[in-house]
Automatic annotation (TrEMBL):
It comes from Natronobacterium haloterrestre. It comes from the Archaea. The chain crosses the membrane at residues 69-89, 101-123, 130-147, 159-179, 200-221, 246-273, 285-303, 323-343. Keywords: Cell membrane, Membrane, Transmembrane, Transmembrane helix, Transport. This is Cobalamin import system permease protein BtuC. It is found in: Cell membrane.
Amino acid sequence: MRIPRVSGRILTWSLALVVLLAGTVIGSAMLGPVRIDPITVSKAVLNLTGIVAYEVPSAHQTIVADVRLPRIALGAVVGFSLAAAGTVMQGFFRNPLADPSIIGVSTGAAAGAVAAIAFPALLPFSSVHVPAFVGAIGTALFVYAVATEGGRTPVATLLLAGVAVQAFLGAVISYMLVLSGENLREAVVWMMGHLHRSSWDDVTFALPVAVVGTVVLGAYAREMNVLLLGEEDAHHLGVDVERTKLLLLALASIVTAAGVAVAGVIGFVGLIVPHIMRLIVGPDHRILLPTSALAGASFLVATDTIARLDTLPLPLGLEVGTPIVPVGIVTAALGAPFFLYLLTKREVHAL
């Protein structure tokens, strides 16, 4: 049976990126104050499936399963969601500089989270996940409502409405930070983007939304490809433009909200990863969406490994001391210079 060319490319790239993700996960789980060899890590991970029961030192099993793996898994889920949403947003706005936060989703999540942290008596939630998620979705709906007139939602108006709402929410967040008192540090760390204190409950919260949302977005890959031609041409080719735009925006916002709600505002994942994958696999969203999502998962796991270690191993057995910081600092420190490099090489193209 002959596999169609596009399907074969999707399968090949996806398998390669799954292998890369598995290697990144194992490598990350090896590193920490206690170094664990890759075979022991692999056995500890497989023990979690309940299918096999390898003999692993109890201390190592606890470190991998209860300390490192929840954080690694959450990083993979958040990277997956941000890269998938960034891919859709770049196609939606036909702009390689677009990212998941362009219409204020991340700022809305930050507003909800900071409100819950700064005023726990008024918003007595057990975690910031719910207020952050609600803030993100509420902001996206508000921006869409403001930008829509007469049943049409011009992309330029949507972008400008997002910028305005982000500016306003930024002022609100700053005011809440002034009033947050002893909760200031927690709120600031959350806004920097973090994966510390991750738990399997966080993964359970974000994983279904990220996976289901991305799968549904993948079903609209053809429509996203056609929209790249322009809204008028897409309409002539049979695409219900306004309905498709609403669905894409809603799904991308939900996927983004799931990631931001559990990890805070992590920049550049949804900007850099889709752009790099577009240069590698091309603009076809049937291939670009799944590959960007998988690459985003590996990227965030790798950057969070750098963020959480106080010493990084180097070749020839050398090590270098590094500060332990929120992962959002690392993604920005790596992403911004790399993007500037792409600009200088003229590798940033219009879609």
